[in-house]
Structure formats: structure tokens, C-alpha cells
Specification:
The protein is mostly helical. 76% of the residues lie in helices and 0% in strands. The radius of gyration is 21 Å and the shape is elongated.
């Protein structure tokens, strides 16, 4: 009986003393502000992995993507982090942008056109009225082409005409 009480007491102390999502998020933001990106990523990932329903999980996953993309320039990890954001939080106001950015990185930085094409098509299907729809259309139409090919062609005009016909 004493052993059970001791084990229960230890468990209460261990789990009762773990930092809240709010505290962990503050630690991550502080680390990020100090350019300690590995520690910030560790803390943000802890929040997301512990509970995607946490009030801080959505912001944490978004921060993960931003750090990989803007600070560390680890493009593949950034693309996966944006895609993970969309998968975990499809109803977020940031979900369309994250989905588009994952496609953009796969297309323009990683040159993984099959992945980019699938993502852009999903974006266009799910968000036909989003402000980035025209950009997704353009990305699909120019995919695999040298910028010199489409900068002096009618591709930009074709995208604009396609948007006009869609609006009618």
C-alpha cells in the first residue's frame, strides 16, 4: 500500500510540474528572439506533439515552418512543416497560405515538380476563391520552364484571361 502511494506521489510530482503549453511557448519565443533556433524548434515541436488541441499548437507549427524557411533555410523541412500545418489545422485562416507555400517550395527550390503539382492542384480545388489562386495557376503553367521562356511569352496574359473567364 505504501509503495502504491509512493508511486502515485511521484507521478503527481512529475506530471504536475511539467510546464504548461503557455510556458513552453514563451520559452520557444524567447529562444527564437535570441536566435537559438534549435531550442525554439524543440519547444515548438514539444507543444505540437504533446497536444494538437492546445491553444498554442497552431502557432507553434506555424513558427516551426517559418524558422525552417526564413531563418535556417532548410527548404525541405520548411515544405514539410507547412504541409504538416495544413494537415493538422485545415480550417485555420493560415491553412491556404501554408498549403500554397509547401507547393511553392517543392516547385521552385526543391524542383520536385510532381509533389508541387499535386499540392497546387489540391490548393486550387480547396480554395478556388483565395487570393493565391492566380499564383497557383501561374506556377502550374510555368512549371519546369526556364523563366526566360515565360517572361517573354503570353503565359502571364493566359493566366489573366483564365482568371477573367473564371470570374464570369
Amino acid at each position: 500500500m505504501k509503495l502504491n502511494f509512493l508511486i502515485l506521489s511521484i507521478l503527481v510530482v512529475l506530471f504536475g510540474c511539467s510546464p504548461s503549453s503557455e510556458e513552453t511557448f514563451k520559452e520557444a519565443r524567447s529562444a527564437e528572439d535570441q536566435k537559438n533556433f534549435p531550442f525554439a524548434l524543440e519547444r515548438y515541436e514539444q507543444i505540437v506533439n504533446d497536444d494538437t488541441q492546445s491553444a498554442y499548437a497552431e502557432s507553434s507549427q506555424y513558427r516551426i515552418a517559418l524558422i525552417y524557411n526564413n531563418e535556417l533555410r532548410e527548404v525541405e523541412k520548411a515544405a514539410r512543416a507547412y504541409r504538416k500545418f495544413y494537415s493538422l489545422f485545415p480550417n485555420s485562416k493560415d491553412a491556404p497560405v501554408c498549403l500554397f507555400l509547401s507547393g511553392f517550395l517543392y516547385n521552385n527550390d526543391l524542383r520536385k515538380q510532381d509533389s508541387a503539382k499535386a499540392i497546387y492542384e489540391e490548393f486550387m480545388q480547396k480554395f478556388p476563391n483565395h487570393e493565391l489562386y492566380t499564383s497557383a495557376t501561374f506556377e502550374l503553367q510555368t512549371m519546369g520552364k526556364d523563366p526566360g521562356e515565360y517572361l517573354h511569352s503570353d503565359t502571364t496574359t493566359e493566366v489573366a484571361q483564365s482568371e477573367e473567364s473564371k470570374a464570369k
